[in-house]
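From the shared-data thread, chain only:
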Amino acid sequence: MLKVWGRRNAFNVQKAMWLVGELGLAHELIDAGGSFGGLDRPDFLAMNPHGRVPVIDDDGTIVWESHAIIRYLSARYGLYAAVLGQRDQSAVRQRRSAVRVPTNSWTNTFKRTDTLRAIV
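Structure, as tokens:
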């Protein structure tokens, strides 16, 4: 069963929990952080050396950082995984590589921002 460490009112935990709900995954939420504490315990730091939430344990696979968790869960349990049935990761990667990022995407804006920082 998927275990999620965090607290319900933490924005990054809410992002991960939203996807857990959308995917209909059985899970256990373990209160951590904020008034619950526990982020400085050695067992928690062994999972996430940064000592921050959210963190998930998916049958032994530990993932931290909300966006990494979202990408992991999507790849493991999302649309491609459901369509492929066997969760053939090479086929998932092949489909992802077929998707092209438009030239006017946020990445170009980010590059321009980096250029501006260098000038300033």
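The longest strand covers residues 2-6.
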